[in-house]
Amino acid sequence: MRNTILTLAPVLLSATLSAQGVFSNKTQSVLEKVIQDYPNHFYNIKGELIGQALQTARYKSILDLPGSSSCTITLYTASPEGSGWSCTVLEAADFNQAKKKFAEIYGQISNSIITAGGGGQKTFILSGQYEEPVEEKKVTHVVFSLLPGIGEMKKLKVELSLQEESNGWKISLSVQDRDPKEESQFAEIGRAPNSEGRRRSDGSRF
Q1: What is the pTM of this model?
Q2: What whole-number distance in Å separates Cα of residue 188 and Cα of residue 63?
Q3: Residue 59 pairs with which residues in a beta bridge?
């Protein structure tokens, strides 16, 4: 019996790691496709209209992150025009559960290799400084930028947030226009971070 358990242990471990890898790959892959459609105001991933106001229109996204409950696209028609993609990744009553998931998602996308731009020939690094969630703080944000910050992509930011709501905690991941003031801070960034630990959307090292 003991020999059987020892024989099965590596198999079970391999299956577990494989499942984790699939989740991570899907997360990065979906995010990369969303970013690739950013210059088109997410036109190619826009689904049915779900709400409209005087200066905004909300659509369902045809691309969802694994385990997400809602992914939407918002188009702003007021001047200046803009757009954003947002996904609710987790809603949980327990802060520690939400905190653990927040760190997990950060680890899956931080320093990822993103291929986007004209003809899909430009390669960027998704870079953002981790911030440890604190329950008393109520809101935690990590803002990612694409490095090097050139062309249309310097106007983009990816934001991972953990926020307290009336019924618990919500984790969201969004791709949206950077505020003009924020954009100026990244205009001259031309150096990507160290290549150690970088990942492509397929999960392989760069």
Answers
A1: 0.75
A2: 32
A3: 49, 73
